[in-house]
Design a protein that fits this description.
This is Helix-turn-helix domain-containing protein. This protein has 90 residues and is mostly helical. It has six helices and three strands. It has a single domain, classed as Multidrug-efflux Transporter Regulator, Chain: A, Domain 2 (Orthogonal Bundle). The radius of gyration is 12 Å and the shape is globular.
Length: 90
């Protein structure tokens, strides 16, 4: 319960990430990742009032096919960090 309230994945082995974890690994702000989720660009499951869980599959879909105006920003992200999040499946 405490990990969930802090925004961490409760079940990381089942390929879930919190927005906070994604932001930390990709060196983005938490508000940026949450904005992507609220806009519907990055699919996520709402875990509580303020926290979302993102499946690896949805993250891969978003990173491989981002909205047109985000393509340059996504392309500038660290490829090693992306591979880490996707488990080497980028």
């Amino acid at each position: 319960m405490k990990l969930n309230s802090l925004g961490y994945s409760v079940r990381p082995t089942l390929d879930n990430y919190s927005c906070k974890e994604i932001a930390k690994v990709l060196c983005l702000s938490l508000s940026t990742v949450c904005f992507w989720v609220r806009r519907g660009w990055l699919k996520a499951t709402k875990r509580s009032a303020k926290h979302y869980q993102v499946r690896t599959w949805h993250l891969k879909q978003f990173l491989s096919n981002p909205p047109q105006h985000l393509k340059k920003r996504i392309a500038s992200l660290d490829k090693e960090a992306i591979n880490y999040l996707l488990g080497g499946r980028a």
